[in-house]
């Protein structure tokens, strides 16, 4: 099912129905891992997604790992078919060959995945960064190199088979934020909006935003999108603060402006991870509550492959209850799962 249909159904509901969704990054296998160990890691990942999805997630998505493309494709397929949750696979194109892009799309399709988040991605190591605004066809070979290119390519090759989403940046794409500044220039911000509209007009169904902590940026972004004619749903991306290290890494990588009060509280609590996580959960709860109060009925959580922070927020919002049984969880042990990777999560949050 196309995810946009679920979003549309929620907006037509008279009971203020809220839909929520979860993002995961593709687990990384140690180079020395045996086939058995790799299978255990994959099964533990699927078990976690199943447990969380059973709380009523409208969809789940999985980030693209170019160096482990087959792993991402296979896990996306398992999420769709074994768990039965509508799954959106991320796909980045920068640095990939046309054949690699097509094999990824075909692989998702053959596994029953019918939703893709089309992204530009990061340039290959050692290559110069490209501007976020229309770096289309810069390689002269007609290979997609940005989100707009990829949307156009998927629509041309697969018609309406896939439901497509694209990334939106309430503070503008990080490339639009000059060194030494914590905000984009007005011109850069407007250019980024124009580029976003082109991605939507090319055939994208909805927008998922980058993380933010200053609520005014998000609400202004929504208003500005409507001002220039972007009418599709805009789904806010929420990242609960769970540790000082991850907070520092994510906000630095994504060039996220953090309100002074939040920054000072995080600094004050950084030596007490339990207190910091509790603060992060309450902050995310308050943010979500304000978003819902403003009439937006969709919430998308960057889980960083961790269960409890996101579920704690949803419980406080009254959207899930504690103690539910999970009907279809694979009988595997969580011990086989990889250690949390902050760097992996950060890398997958910023593609254009």
UniProtKB/TrEMBL annotation:
The UniProt keywords, alphabetically, are: FAD, Flavoprotein, Oxidoreductase
According to its UniProt entry, the protein's GO biological process terms are:
methionine biosynthetic process; tetrahydrofolate interconversion
In its UniProt entry, what is this protein called?
Answer: Methylenetetrahydrofolate reductase
Which domain of life does the protein's organism represent? Eukaryota
Q: Care to name a GO molecular-function term for this sequence?
A: methylenetetrahydrofolate reductase [NAD(P)H] activity
Q: Which family does it belong to?
A: Belongs to the methylenetetrahydrofolate reductase family.
- Give the UniProt entry's GO cellular component terms: cytosol
Question: Hey, which pathway is this one from?
Answer: One-carbon metabolism; tetrahydrofolate interconversion
- Cofactor dependence: FAD
SUPFAM superfamilies cross-referenced by the UniProt entry: FAD-linked oxidoreductase
Organism this protein belongs to: Carex littledalei
Short name of one Pfam family: MTHFR
């Amino acid at each position: 099912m196309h995810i946009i249909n679920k979003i549309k159904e929620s907006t037509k509901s008279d009971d203020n129905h809220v839909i929520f969704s979860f993002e995961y990054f593709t687990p990384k296998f140690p180079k020395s891992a045996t086939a058995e160990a790799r299978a255990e890691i994959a099964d533990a990942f699927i078990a976690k997604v199943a447990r969380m999805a059973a709380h009523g997630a409208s969809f789940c998505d999985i980030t693209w790992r170019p160096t482990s493309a087959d792993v991402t494709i296979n896990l996306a397929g398992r999420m769709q078919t074994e768990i039965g949750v509508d799954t959106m696979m991320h796909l980045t194109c920068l640095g990939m060959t046309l054949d690699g892009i097509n094999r990824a799309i075909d692989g998702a399709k053959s596994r029953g995945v019918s939703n893709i988040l089309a992204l530009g991605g990061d340039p290959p190591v050692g290559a110069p960064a490209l501007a976020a605004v229309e770096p289309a066809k810069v390689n002269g070979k007609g290979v997609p190199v940005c989100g707009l290119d990829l949307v156009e390519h998927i629509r041309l090759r697969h018609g309406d088979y896939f439901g497509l989403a694209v990334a939106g940046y309430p503070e503008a794409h990080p490339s639009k934020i000059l060194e030494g500044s914590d905000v984009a220039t007005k011109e850069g911000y407007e250019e980024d909006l124009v580029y976003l509209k082109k991605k939507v007009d090319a055939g994208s169904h909805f927008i998922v935003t980058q993380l933010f902590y200053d609520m005014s940026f998000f609400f202004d972004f929504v208003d500005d999108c409507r001002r220039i004619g972007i009418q599709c749903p805009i789904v806010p991306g929420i990242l609960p603060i769970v540790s000082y290290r991850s907070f520092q890494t994510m906000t630095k990588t994504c060039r996220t402006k953090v309100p002074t009060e939040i920054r000072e509280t995080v600094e004050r609590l950084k030596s007490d991870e339990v207190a910091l996580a509790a603060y992060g959960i309450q902050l995310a709860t308050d943010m979500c509550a304000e978003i819902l109060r403003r009439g937006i009925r969709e919430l998308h959580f960057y889980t960083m492959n961790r269960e409890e922070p996101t579920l704690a927020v949803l419980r406080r919002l009254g959207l899930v209850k504690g103690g539910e049984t999970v009907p279809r969880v694979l009988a595997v042990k969580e011990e086989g799962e990889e250690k949390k990777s902050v760097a992996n999560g950060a890398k997958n949050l910023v593609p254009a």
